[in-house]
Design a protein that fits this description.
Layout: E1 14-22, H1 24-27, E2 39-45, E3 47-48, E4 51-52, H2 65-71, H3 73-77, E5 89-95, E6 102-104, H4 108-115, E7 122-129, E8 134-139, H5 145-154, E9 161-165, E10 171-174, E11 180-182, E12 186-193, E13 199-202, H6 218-224, E14 239-241, E15 246-250, E16 258-264, E17 268-271, E18 276-288, E19 294-297, E20 301-304, E21 310-325
Antiparallel strand pairs: 1-2, 2-5, 3-4, 5-12, 6-13, 7-10, 7-12, 8-9, 8-11, 14-15, 15-16, 16-21, 17-21, 18-19, 18-20, 18-21
The structure holds zinc ion.
């Protein structure tokens, strides 16, 4: 029997509960949360150890992203990208009711050596920010390893961190080696390398649920920090016309992903030679292909496999969507 041809895929969200999480993944993004105020992350698209996304729509419902990657790599990823052992990107929503720890992610070489994992470069798109909330990104100019290590020892790390007020719509690139912390009150969408390599350097002198400080990874962090990088601020974007259908903005991108924000008021056709990930940011749209249309609302994620060479995005009124491809 011939295989079912691929179509725009939705996945079951994988919810992660952590001490700093909140409830907005449910109340704002409509994820299926239960009791409790510690819903920290919704992994929208993941292929990481036992955290693997499962298709939730259409005839392939119940199939995992990993099975598709292994059995139908070219249709999923596209010949331009070629077969891979692991799906290359992780897409998440993050709700920080409290400050996250101050942390750093390694690059690929250090990730493999220090954590047996990929490196992690990530990009953020702020979805909501309570008044007064901040993001810490990068070190203040001139902060070197000796000063930073002393600050870790004395618990006075905050004065060495660059920070900016978080605003909805801010787009930030956190390259591997950048010290960072998402501040309390911020909710964001994150696109990153498929990795969970995180080295915690400072946890605001607080304790975990068991009354003890959470583990830090100071030596690995010191080795991973790029002390030459300095402060990181939200990216200034330029708005360009999108063929009369709306506008596009190029967002923080890297060798691992290219992100754009599209604001659509008319339908637009996309043609592709590799997969595209679409994340609904505002409003409502549907994806039209040969098969049944797939709706995409704010807070939802769709993977358009490479084999769907052509599809139409049809907004209802105005819709804003994050697009993500691998270069
Ligand atoms: Zn991070």
């Amino acid at each position: 029997m011939p295989d079912q041809s691929l179509y725009p895929l939705r996945f079951e969200p994988i919810l992660r509960r952590l001490i700093w999480g909140g409830r907005r993944l449910g109340t704002v993004l409509h994820k299926p949360i239960g009791e409790g105020a510690d819903y920290a992350e919704s992994w929208e698209l993941a292929d990481y150890h036992d955290q693997v996304s499962v298709v939730s729509n259409g005839p392939l419902a119940g199939t995992t992203l990993r099975e598709l990657l292994h059995t139908r790599p070219m249709e999923l990823l596209g010949p331009a990208l070629g077969a891979r052992d692991q799906f290359p990107l992780l897409v998440k929503f993050i709700d920080a009711r409290e400050d996250l720890s101050v942390q750093v992610h390694p690059d690929d070489e250090k990730g493999r050596r220090l954590a047996g994992d990929n490196g992690k470069t990530e990009a953020w798109l702020v979805l909501a920010a309570e008044p007064g909330s901040v993001i810490y990104a990068g070190l203040r100019r001139g902060v070197g390893p000796e000063e930073f290590r002393r600050a870790i020892e004395t618990g006075a790390v905050e004065p060495l961190l660059h920070r900016f007020p978080a605003r909805p719509g801010d787009a930030v690139l956190i390259e591997a080696g950048t010290v960072h912390a998402i501040g309390a009150g911020v909710m964001l969408a994150e696109v990153q390398q498929m990795s969970d390599a995180t080295f915690r350097v400072f946890d605001w002198n607080r304790v975990g649920t068991d009354g003890k400080p959470r583990e830090l990874h100071i030596e690995q962090a010191m080795e991973s920090i790029d002390f030459g990088r300095g402060p990181v601020d939200p990216m200034k974007t330029r708005v360009e016309d999108l063929g009369g259908a709306g506008t596009r903005e190029r967002l923080p991108s890297s060798e691992y992903f290219i992100l754009e924000r599209w604001r659509l008021h008319e339908p637009i056709r996309i043609e592709q030679d590799r997969f595209t990930i679409l994340v609904g940011l505002d409003g409502d749209l549907k994806l039209e292909t040969a098969g049944p249309p797939v709706p995409l609302r704010a807070g939802q994620t769709v993977l358009v496999p490479a084999a769907v060479e052509e599809c139409r995005l049809v907004p209802r009124g105005e819709a804003v969507v994050l697009t993500c491809v691998v270069p």
